[in-house]
Structures are given as C-alpha cells and as structure tokens.
Known about the structure:
four-stranded mixed beta sheet
Amino acid sequence: MGVLLSNADGNYNRGKYINPFIMSTKNLGQVAGVAIQNTPPTNIALIWYDNTPSQMCHKVYDTAKKTWVIIDQKIISSITYSEIENIARQSGLPLGKFYQITDRNNTLALSIASTKVQYTDSLGNILIDDLGTNIQYHVSSSNLQIDDISGTFNSVNSKLVFIFEELENDINNDYILGKTYRNNAWKLFKFKLKSLISSQNGNSITWNNGLFLNATKLFNDLKDKIGGFVSYDTYIKTVDTQNTAINNVGKENQEIISNAQKALTEATKPDTFYATQLPSISTGGEATDVAKGDTLLNIVSKIQRYINKFKYATGIKISDKFTSLDKSGKVNNNDTVETAIAKLQNQQSNLRFSLPTDWTPNNSTNQNAVAGEGYDSVFGKAFQQIGHLTTVPIRMLLQARGMIRYLVKLKLIGELRIICNVQWMLSFGGMMKVHIT
C-alpha cells in the first residue's frame, strides 16, 4: 500500500511512492493530481478544485486568457451581491462562470473579468458591473433618457446613441442644456433661448435668428445726449463756432492791445507824466526805509517823513549803544562818525592835566622814561632823579624851564596847572638846594 504526497501548493512529489511498511521510494515518473484549496496553485498544470464556499468547482488554467477558468461553465453558483463583490476584490472571479445573485431578483450574472460581471437588471437594462470600483456601465437600455428623450441602441458597436439634429432655432421653444453646481452638488439644467434676452430697460440686444445688436439705433439713441457722446456733425459744428469765436476774440484783443498801447504812450509822455498831481499822502509816524513792493505813493510818503524829520531835527543823536572803552588809535578815513567820536573821546579821557591825588615819586633809581609811558610815571621817575641831585647847574635849570614852556606851547600841559613859572622854579630850586655857580 502506498500514498501520493502533495505539498502546500498542491504539487505531488514526483516519482516518490512511499510504502509505509518498507519505507522506501521508487520513481514512478510524472504523476497528475488535483490541488484542493481556496487559493490558485502555482503549478498551472494541475486541476484546481476551488473549495471556496461560493465556488466549489474544478478549474483549469487557460494559457490564452492567463487565468483560471471553470471546467464546466454551465455550473451556476447561488450567491449574494456582497459575497460576489468580496470575491472580486480579494481573489478575483473566474472567467466564464455564472452566478445567480439571490438578493438582486435572482439575476443571472456572467463573469467577464476578474472584477466585472455582466447581467440584465429588473428594468431590462444590460449592465456591466465593475465590482472592484463599484461602477456600473449600461451596455443597452431602452430606459435611458435625456430630459425625456430616449437614446437608440446601436447593436453593431453595442453603444447607446443620442442623436442631436441640426435645426433652425426657435427662440420660444428651443432649450439649452447643461450642468451647474448648486447647493454643493452638480446637477443638470436647461433654459430657453429667449431667456438670453435681457428684459431690463435700455437693453439694445434683440433676437433676429440669433442675438442681434442694432448698433445704428443704439448710437442714435445715445448721441448728443447727457451720458452719451457727441456726434460727428455736432462736433464739426461746435468746432466751427469755436473757431469763429476765437477769431473774433483775437481781433478784439488786438484792438484792445492797440488801444492800451496808445493810451500808455500818451500817459507816459514827459509832459503828461510830470504833470500828474500827487494826491493826499500820509506824513505822520516814524520814518522808515523804502522796501520792495512799495507803491510810488508809499515811497513819496516815506521820503516826506525823512524830510520832515530833518526839517525839525535839533541834531544828530548818537546811538544808545555808543561806548569809547574799546576804541583806541587815530581816526581813519574809513571810520564812521560814531567810531571817530569814540576814538577822540578815548584820547581825551586819557589826557591828564594834574597829578592824581595818590601820586608819589618813583622810589626806583636811575630809571628812564620809555615811549608810550604815562605822564604820571614819567614825572615820578623825574622827581626821583632830581631828588638825588645835590647841585644843579644853572644851565640845567634853564633847560628844564625851557622844556616846560615847550610842553605848554604844544598844549600837552595846561597853562598854570603845572607849575612852570620862574617863581616855582626858584622855589623848586631852593627845595632842591640849588647852588648857582
């Protein structure tokens, strides 16, 4: 006694006969067998018994179709629509197998692809149902219509045809069909041709075997009106009128210019110009300078104020900012009157005709006077040197008296303010213990 062993794919061991008693093998050659399982075997030379509950049939591999097909295609399996849909999506349907779909009025369906079946529904429509994508295709139907218009089934190419005839338009009875997106969904719609014509006032589009715009009427209704446009004839007429008016204005302007020039010439003649009488002018208030923009009358008024000021002036005043403290030196030809007076005042203030009350002789000995030194300091140095003399020759005394007289003559020392007479000199000589030899 022996057995044939099969692997998981339904392949029997070639030439291996197992005797359970002898436990030895013998090569018997190629042995045919049947694979019993619910998935297609990899060995396409076997007969496959598909033990799927909805199948339960023998299948062979069709090399032309490259798929497993049932051996007896007349075998009909009862199945529900959900069951056949699951088989199509999971393992695929065998080609040529018939199914009786029990929950679809026992509709007889033929598998034409691994996921497609063909059947006739309860309405008589021939459908191809793609169970993998849940899409149905109508192969033939007398129930398919477009807006109550039925199509014609072409048995040659198995297509449902809707024929659109080319006719003359009828605005009152013709419709336009289309689709629209309303309320978050696509839907079909239709409207009559006459609805293309707006019913609003002022619409110029009408229907004349099609949409028709009467441009001539439209333009005639708008020309030479407010909100419209100017017509050509009106434009030419207006331009001619404006040109005539411009020419007239130009001629009149030339006459005005000529008359104005003539009047200006007459008015500016010397006899006429200088004969013009001056009207009443204002002469009160402070005198101010002539400024840009002043009229001739204002200029005359300002000049008259200066004249009045000179007429009744008691003298020219020095400004309130006058000072002589920082002005020194001689008067130059480019000095102003105020600067020159300041220099003279400074020189006069520096002249002294008497010794200061706190004057004292210079205690330093043998110092000579220097250029630019003040008279106070010079006299201090002179008295210091004279005080140290024991005898003074008469000749030196006479020279001193002559020097003092010379200074008086030059008006550098005021007369009688500095002791310069002989009596003073004799007293001074006595004070200095002068011995005449």
